[in-house]
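Fold it.
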Amino acid sequence: MISYSQNFEDVILARLFQGQASGFYIDVGAWDPTRHSVTRHFYDLGWTGINIEPVSRQFQLFAEERPRDRNLNVAVADLAGRLRFYECKQLTSLSTANETQAGELQRAGYEVISYEVPVVTLEEVIAGCGDRVIDFLKIDVEGFEETVLRGLDLRTRRPRVLVIEATLPSVKIEDWDQIDRIRNWDDWEPAILAADYELAWYDGLSRFYLRREDAGLRKRLSLPPCVHDGVELAEVHELKRAHQVLLQEREDVLNTNRRLVGELRAVEGDRTEKASVLERVERELADLQNSQMALAKEREDVLEANERLAEELRAVDEDRAAKAVNLEGLAAELSELRTSRQQLLDERETILSVNQSVESQLRSVEADQVNKADVIARLAQQVTELAGECQASTEAREKLLETNTRLQSELRTIGADRTEKEATIERLDREVAELKTDRLAILEARDKVLQATQRLETELRAVEADRAEKSQVIERLNVDLERASLENTIQSHKLLAKDQVIELAAIRNLNGKAVLRGLADLRARRRHTVPAYGDYVPAEATGNGLHVAIDTLEIVFGVSGGVETYMKMLTSALLEGGRRVTLICLPDQVAPLRKVFGARVGYFVMRRSAAVGLAIDVSNRLLSRTRRLSATTSMATFSRLREDIGVDILHSPVQIFSVLDFRVPSVLNLHDLQHLHFPENFSPSDIEARNRLYGLSASLADAIVVSSDFVRNDLINQMRVPAAKVFTVPVTWDPRVIAGLDGFSVQDAISLYKLPSIYAIYPAQFWPHKNHARLVQALRIVRDKCPNVDLKLVFTGYRGHSGWPAVQATIEQLGLGADVVCLDHVPVDHLAAIYKGSLYCVMPSTFEASSYPVIEAQVLGVPAMCSNVTSLPELTRGGAGLLFDPFDVEDIAAKMLRWLDDPDDRQTHAERAHAKAGRDHDIEKYIAGLAGAYDYARGERSERFNACAAAAQPG
C-alpha cells in the first residue's frame, strides 16, 4: 500500500480494516487531501467521508480533489456559532483555535493572522450522517482536542476507531529520558476511556482507541508498521513514478534520436541522389544553354540571310520595275516603229505606184530610199536585239519569281521552326525556373539537415559525456567490488572463527546441561567411543554415496501432516538415488521411523538427561497428559555431525533447523510463508517466532528447496532471499501410496471404512486455511440442486487441530451430519483405495505450497479440482483439472455439479492430469532437482550463478 500519512497512521488503520472494500470516516483538521493525509489511502480504495478544514485555501484543495467526500469549511468546538481562529501563514498545518498555541507560534517567529470562522459540533456533524457506521474518527486540531471532544457524546455516537493527535504541537523530543514532555492527553483521555473505549496503540504522535465492541481487532496491532505491511511512502512512490516518467522521456529522446539518425541517413541518401540528379540536370541545362546559343546564332544567321535576301529581292524588284519601264518604252517604240513601218510600206506602195510616173523623182527617191533602207536595217537589228533582250528579261523575271516563291517557302519553314524553337526555349526556361525552385528547396532541406545534424552532434556529445561519466561510475563500482571481495574474504575468516566459537559454545552448553541434568550424563558424555549427546545406529548398507542427515526433531507423527509426508517422500527418494541417509530423531520418534524405513537408514537419536527424563515422566503421570521430549529439552547439537558420524549434507524438511549450531553444508525446505498472507490464522507470538526462526534458518541454509514457483517468488520478494540459492523442485508422490493398492483394494476400503457409494474425497488436516467449512457449504448447494444424486464428502485428518470446531459447527448447522464422513488418520497404504473409490478429489485450500492430494489423485487417474490461488494452478496447467475460487461457495458448487453432470469431461481432465503428473513429478526428476541443490550447497555454484544472470527465475 502507499502510505500518505505523517506517522504511518493509515498503515495501522489499514490493518484494522483489512479486506474492507468500503467504509466511512470523519477527519477533523484534515489540512490536505494528499500530503500527510490519514484518509487518502481509504479514499483511493473507494471509501467516503467528511473532511473538516477551517483554512479556506486548504479547504479549496479538498473541494477540487475529493468530489465524493463531504467537505466543510468550518471549525469544530463544543458549542456551535463562531470563534476566533489563528492561521499560521508559513505552515498552515499548525493553524489552531487554541489562543495559547497561537502565541507559542508567534514567539517561535511564525506570522499568525486571526479571524472569525463558523463553528459546528461533532454531534451536529455525525447527526447529519444518519445511521451510517463511522469506521474511524481522526482529530488533529493542534492543542484544541479537549474542546472538540466535549462536543461529542461517545456513549451514543460510537465511531469504531478514534485517532487523536496526543502530543504538544511543534515540541520535539530532544532528551529521551524526558519523553513525557510531549504528552498532551491527560485532560481528555479519561472521558474516552470512561465511554468504553480502549487504548490500542500509541505511535509517538497519535493515540488509537478501539471501542469495546471491536476489542478483538487489537491483536492486529501487535507489531509496529513493518515490512509485512508492504508499505511504500507516498513520497517514494511519487519519486518512483517521476523516475519512470524520466526513464520514459529518456527512452522517447533516444527513440527520437534514432528516428532522426534514420531520417538523417535517409536525407543524406536523398541528398546524394538529388545531388546526382542536380548534377545531371545542370549538365542537361548546360547542353540546353549551348543548344540555345547555337539556335540563337543560327537564328541571327537566318535573320541576316533574310535581310540579305530581302535586300536582294528589293533590288530585283527595283530592277524588274526599271526593266518593266524600259520594256514599256521599248513596246511604245516598237509600236511606233510598226506604225512607222506601216507608213513606210504605205509610202513605198505610193512611191512604187507613182514610180512610173515620177521618173525624175526616182533617182532622188532611190538615193533617199537607200538611206532609209540603212535606217530600217539598223532599226530592224535594234528591234531584233530588243526582242532578244525582252525574251531574256521575261526569262529572268520568271526565274526571279521562282526564286521569290522558293524564298517565301523557306521563310515560312524558318518561321515555323523559329516558333517551335521559341516554344522549346520557353519550356526550357520554365524547367530551368522549376529546377532553380527545387534547388532552393534542396538547399533549405540541406540547411535543416545540417541544423538537425548539429543538434544530433550536440546530443551525441552529451551522450558521450554521460557514457564517460557512467564509465567512471563503473570503474568506481569495480573498485568497490574489489573492496567488497576483500571484505568478503575478511568476513569468511571471521566466520571460520565464529564456527570455532559455536563449537566451544555447544560444548559449554552440553556441559551446562549435564551439570543441571545429572552427573550420570556427564560421565556418559566424556566417553570417546560414541558422541556424548546422542546414540548413532548406522544403516545396514552404508555404501559410498553422499551422506545426508535429515532433521526430523520437530515432526509429531500423525499430527504434522504434509511435513511428515514430505519427510518420508524425501527419505525414500534419497535412498532410491543411492544416497546414505541418517535420520536425526528423538527417542520417541525411533519406533514410527523404523516402521517405515527399517534398517535402510541410520538413526542418530538425541539423548535426554536423566533429570529431564524424570521430569517429563512425572509430569505425564501427575497431569495425565502426554508431554514429549523436544530439541530444546534434549541434549541435541549439530555442531559435530561431520566429525562424529561423517555427515556431508544436513537437510531439514520442516521449515526450520531444530538446532542452529551446525557447521556442515545445509539445505532447508521452506514450504510456505502462510503467516504473512493469513496472519489472522496465527497468534502474535507465533508470527513473531516464525519470522525470527524462518529468517535465521533461511540465512544459515546454503540452499533452499521449495515445491513451486509461487513459494520461490514469495521467498525472494518477501524475505529477500538471494534467488540463486532457492531451487524449485516439484514434489514426487509417496510410492507407498500407489503400492498400497496391491494389498488393499477399493472394495476393502468400502468395507472397512463404510464408504458411501458416491463421494468426493478431501484428505487434509483440519487447519483453518484448509477451508473445509466452505466445502461443506458447497455440498449443501449441490445436494439441494441435485437431490436425486446422493453425493457425500469423505475427510481424512486429525480433528484435534484448530480448524475442526468451525467445520463441525457448519456440518451441524447445515444438517449434513450423515453426508460428511470423517475418517481421521488413515494408514498410507489405504489412501490409494479411498482415492480410487471416489468420484473425484476436491482441494479447496486457501494456501498451499504444493498439494500431495492433487498429485496423488492425478497419479492414480482420479479427477482432481482445486483452488485458483497460490501454487495450486501450477498443478492443473494444460487442462489437468478444474479451478475454482476457494472463497466463493457458489463457484465450488458449480465445479462439483459440472463433473457430476459430465463424466466425459471428468475423464478427459483425469487423463491429461495423469500424463502431466508423470512428467512433472517423476521421482527421477525429483532426485535430479535435489542433486542440484546439494551440489550448490557444497559450493558447486558457477553454473547456477550464470543461470541466474541469464534469466529472471532460474531453476
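The first helix runs from residue 9 to 16.
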